[in-house]
């Protein structure tokens, strides 16, 4: 997931969506939701490092 986030930050959504074959923002939000279930503190740290993920918290 760290590699995905790094690539997303450098390539952005459209390129990552094409690369993985599914909506990159939905993929990231789903994975972050899983991390939040396991470790809410870790999910908060990840969301703080990647501001574009903050929309996940509003769902």
Helix content: over 70%
Overall pLDDT score: 88
Give a short account of the largest sheet: none
- How many strands? 0
The unreliable regions are none
Radius of gyration, in angstroms, nearest whole number: 11 Å
The termini sit apart by: 20 Å
The share of residues in extended strands comes to: under 5%
SS summary, helix count: 4
Helix/strand/pairing class, anyone? Answer: mainly alpha
Helix and strand element order: HHHH
Q: Shape from CA axes?
A: globular
The tally of structural domains comes to 1
Summarize the topology.
Elements: H1 2-11, H2 13-20, H3 24-38, H4 40-49
Helix pairs in contact: 1-2, 3-4
What does this structure look like?
The chain has 59 residues and is mainly alpha-helical. It has one domain. The model has no long low-confidence stretch (mean pLDDT 88).
């Amino acid at each position: 997931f760290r590699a995905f986030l790094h690539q997303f930050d450098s390539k952005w959504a459209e390129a990552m969506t094409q690369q993985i074959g599914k909506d990159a923002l939905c993929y990231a939000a789903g994975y972050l939701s899983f991390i939040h279930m396991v470790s809410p503190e870790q999910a908060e740290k990840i969301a703080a490092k990647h501001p574009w993920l903050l929309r996940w918290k509003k769902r």
